[in-house]
Write a structure and sequence with these properties.
The complex is a heterodimer of chains A (315) and B (537). With 315 residues, chain A is α+β, with helices and mostly antiparallel strands. Chain A folds into 3 domains: 70 residues, Helix Hairpins, CATH 1.10.287; 110 residues, Immunoglobulin-like (Sandwich); 93 residues, Cytochrome c-like domain (Cytochrome Bc1 Complex, Chain D, domain 2, Orthogonal Bundle). In chain A, helix 1 packs antiparallel against helix 2 and helix 4 packs across helix 6. With 537 residues, chain B is an all-alpha fold. Chain B has a single domain, classed as Up-down Bundle (Cytochrome C Oxidase, Chain A). In chain B, helix 3 runs antiparallel to helix 7. Chain B is globular. Classes of the chains: A alpha+beta (315), B mainly alpha (537). The interface between A and B is large, with 84 and 90 residues.
């Protein structure tokens, strides 16, 4: 569909991507030429000057050639200066956010992404943006260092726990694009994957309005089922009784649980609510205190919906 | 000590007994002991790599849990870097060759030399203990605050790295003093073999950079054990500070790994071309130039870390200038082959492999030095491929070339030339299958350190895994014929390659004191044009 797509780079889908690719291809071409010359000459010499008779190894010393040495120092120097300036110019563009950019807060934590919109919508592992509009991402982490990477947009920025970092992009194609974590962050690192969904402006406007209202038109249980997926509960909690990182939702509600400190707790609504908001205060035996807090991420209605959903798993 | 005046006495058989080895101060024996140790760790690290590649054959977890996978790649990296590649050429081959090549009886501080071997063994025991105690899962870079908070045994690994650092510093110190004070009469600086220039430049980095790593790991240990907030923001620290400290050592360390390999390549190409080396001074000074510049480029590992654009610009600029001397070296080596008399023996095949693979490694570095392109490629498989091309395609190829080159000198036996060439072919092809694929994976956006991956990357990952088996098979062949040659190889003459440096003037294997008579410099290390003619007349 796109004439600029190639076998090695993902289809460029942001305003900056073609600029990055142009330099990539320039370096590829230049280094391929240098490589071919070096290898061809090496192999040619190996064949042309191979020792034909054992023991006959007399040679004449050719140990310098000023012209040649100046040539092979200056040509690469000029080439790398071009690459340096070119790379820096695009890099500056990648770092100067246009004034009219839509700001979205992106948060990384073990092991999912949260995206918060000014209008109130919030999403897990899914970033929805309009096409042809600059988007500014304000990044921070709740725990260790992560890094947000969208190959199709050629953007990457580390996500730090002690300060904000910023990156921006302007998508040029609608569609879905992979979003990866590229700074090693532990067991779930390779599943800290999200999607960027690029919509036409009108669809985006409709989506934004709808998503800023919480689970309208759904029963609590249905909304809970949706949240189970969109908030990525499934990465740690199964529905079929199997163990991933945390307990399965199946049959969990109402059961009597032994905690790591030896006390017992009945898994009722209040326990579930506490486990979502302050997950590390009471840890059931056999599990580690690894669940992040959802305080500030989930609204009351969403917590209610999740509890309703967990209850439904007993049936 | 008076030695029995017999031709059969050599450093391997005199004196006899395990104790004489364990308490030896002979640099040749210490070199062989290092060689045994690094071979063991290379085998462990290599097997871990095969386990990793096998797991990556399919997108989902096959037989390792995610945590186990993370521990495997961390151990592979940590073992290969700290226990294998850093001591490989300097401490194993360098220990054996450096004093003989400059015509000395031993290094300047023989006891310190033995101590550094024991410190190395002691440090590596700490690293191995950490596997047993709960293998580290941080990656060999130990980035904070992950490493401040993970429940694996970071502290014992850090202690191991701290101790290993001293071994490296002592070796470097020893080499610097040896080169300055113990050269044979007539061996001026410009008559030194280029191997010595490489080792000398390496030693400078070892002495100046390693203490920074030591300080960094001690700070991390203090943070983990005493709760001092240095890197962990939860305790008021700054995690990016760790990255600056870490790369301030670990970037120069890259040149600790490659510079001695470049020294070996100079020896191999000159000797097997029977040719005076092209641009002796350019090669010698580019080693020192690389050593100096290597201290000024560390933050190019951190272009996405949120550092200022100004810093990124400076570090990108300087990074390109560390590339120029390496490029000049490659051109000089190729030019050396011009009008030579090239003998394609196994060591020369490794030297040519080095030229090809190191060129790929160097040229792909340009992609990473360019700021805008690096943003896309950083922390993807492109990086993995790039550093394997420089470290394995560069240093390991040089190490293998050097090992075959000096094998007859070290053990007095010839290896099988036929099997040597076969193994080299397997290693060259397997290496390219494994790692060239990873350039494409990275360019397409496959992040590194992923225990599982998306289905679209499977064909390339599968091909890479098959390549790793070809590579492993090459090493298996090599292990068999090298071990076989120790007892059954043809007896080596003093100078099987017709080389001109000092180590080939003594017997194979050398006398315990290296030379029966003090050697004298009568010609330059690469004066093949004049010396061979004189000998023929």
């Amino acid at each position: 569909m796109d004439s600029t797509s190639s076998t090695y780079l993902p289809t460029p889908s942001s305003t900056i991507a073609p600029e990055v690719d142009a330099l990539f291809n320039f370096i590829l071409l230049a280094s391929f030429a240098i490589f071919v010359i070096v290898v061809a000459v090496t192999l040619y010499f190996s064949w042309r000057y191979r020792r034909k008779v054992a023991g006959d190894g007399l040679t004449y010393g050719v140990d310098h050639n000023i012209k040649l040495e100046i040539l092979w120092t200056t040509i690469p120097t000029i080439l790398i200066l071009i690459v340096f300036v070119w790379g820096f110019k695009t890099y500056i563009k990648m770092n100067v956010v246009p004034g009219d950019a839509i700001e979205i807060k992106a948060t990384g934590q073990k092991w999912f992404w949260t995206f918060d919109y000014k209008e109130g919508a919030n999403l897990v592992n899914e970033l929805v943006v309009p096409v042809n509009k600059p988007i500014k991402l304000l990044l921070s982490s709740q725990d260790v260092i992560h890094s947000l990477f969208v190959p199709a947009f050629r953007i990457k920025m580390d996500v730090l726990p002690n300060r904000y970092t910023i990156t921006w992009f302007e998508a040029t194609h609608t569609g879905e694009f992979d979003l990866f974590c590229t700074e090693f962050c532990g067991d779930g690192h390779s599943e800290m994957i999200g999607k960027v969904k690029v919509l036409p402006p009108d669809e985006y406007a409709i989506w934004l309005e709808k998503s800023s209202v919480l689970g309208e038109g759904l029963t609590l249980e249905e909304y809970g089922a949706e949240l189970y997926k969109t908030k990525a509960c499934y990465t740690c909690h199964s529905l079929d009784g199997s163990l991933i990182q945390g307990p399965s939702f199946k049959g969990r509600f109402g059961s009597e649980l032994t905690m790591t400190d030896g006390t017992t707790v009945v898994s009722d609504e209040n326990y579930l609510r506490e486990s979502i908001l302050n997950p590390r205060t009471k840890i059931a035996e056999g599990f580690k205190p690894i669940m992040p807090t959802f305080q500030g991420i989930l609204k009351d209605r969403q917590i209610d919906a999740l509890i309703a959903y967990i209850k439904a798993m007993n049936e | 000590m008076n030695l029995p005046n017999e031709a059969k006495i050599n450093y391997l058989n005199y004196p006899k007994g395990l104790k004489s080895w364990l308490l030896t101060v002979d640099h040749k024996r210490i070199g062989v002991m290092y060689l045994a140790a690094i071979t063991l760790f290379f085998a462990i690290g290599g097997l871990l790599a095969l386990v990793i590649r096998t797991e990556l054959f399919t997108p989902d977890n096959m037989f390792l849990t995610k945590k186990m996978y993370n521990q495997m790649f961390t151990l592979h990296g940590a073992i290969m870097i700290f226990l294998f590649i850093i001591p490989s050429i300097p401490a194993a081959l360098g220990n054996f060759i450096l004093p003989i090549q400059i015509g000395a009886k031993d290094v300047a501080f023989p006891r310190l030399n033995l101590a550094s071997w024991y410190i190395y063994v002691f440090g590596s025991l700490f690293c191995l203990y950490s596997i047993w105690e709960g293998a580290v899962d941080t990656g060999w870079t130990f980035y904070t605050p992950y490493s401040s908070t993970t429940d694996t045994s970071v502290v014992s690994m850090m202690l191991g790295v701290f101790i290993l650092g001293f071994s490296s510093i002592f070796t470097g110190l020893n080499f610097i003093v040896t080169v300055h004070k113990l050269r044979a009469p007539g061996m001026t600086w410009y008559k030194m073999p280029l191997m010595i220039w490489g080792l000398y430049a390496t030693a400078i980095i070892q002495v100046l950079a390693t203490p920074v790593l030591g300080i960094t790991v001690v700070l991390l240990i203090l943070e983990r054990t005493l709760g001092m907030g240095i890197f962990d923001p939860a305790m008021g620290g700054d995690p990016v500070l760790f990255q600056h400290f870490f790369w301030f050592y670990s970037h120069p360390a890259v040149y600790i790994m490659i510079l001695p390999g470049m020294g070996i390549i100079s020896e191999l190409i000159a000797t097997f071309s029977h040719k005076k080396i092209f641009g002796y001074k350019a090669i010698a000074f580019s080693s020192l130039g690389i050593a100096f510049t290597s201290f000024l480029v560390w933050a190019h590992h951190m272009f996405t870390s949120g550092q200022s654009e100004f810093a990124a610009m400076i570090f990108s600029f300087l990074t390109f200038f560390v590339g120029i001397p390496s490029g000049i070296k490659v051109f000089n080596w190729v030019a050396t082959m011009y009008k030579g008399s090239i003998d394609l023996k196994t060591p020369m095949l490794y030297a040519i492999s080095f030229l090809i693979l190191f060129s790929v490694g160097g040229l792909t570095g340009i992609f990473l030095g360019a700021l805008s392109v690096d943003i896309h490629l950083h922390d993807t498989y492109f990086i993995v491929a790039h550093f394997h091309y420089t470290m394995m395609g560069g240093t390991v190829m040089a190490l293998l070339g050097g090992l075959h080159y000096w094998w007859p000198k070290m053990f007095g036996r010839m290896y099988s030339e036929f099997w040597g060439r076969i193994a080299c072919a397997f290693i060259f092809i397997g290496f390219n299958m494994t790692f060239f694929t990873q350039f494409i994976l990275g360019t397409r956006g496959m992040p590194r350190r992923y225990a599982t991956y998306m289905d679209q990357f499977q064909p390339l990952h599968g091909f890479s895994s098959i390549g790793s088996y070809v590579l492993g098979f090459g090493f298996l062949i090599m292990a068999i014929y090298l071990i076989h040659s120790l007892r059954n190889g043809k007896i080596a003459s003093a100078n099987p390659w017709g080389a001109l440096t000092f180590e080939w003037e003594t017997t194979s294997p050398p006398h315990p004191h290296n030379f029966e008579h003090e050697p004298k410099v009568t010609h330059g290390p690469y004066d093949f044009d004049t010396v061979l003619r004189e000998r023929e007349e």
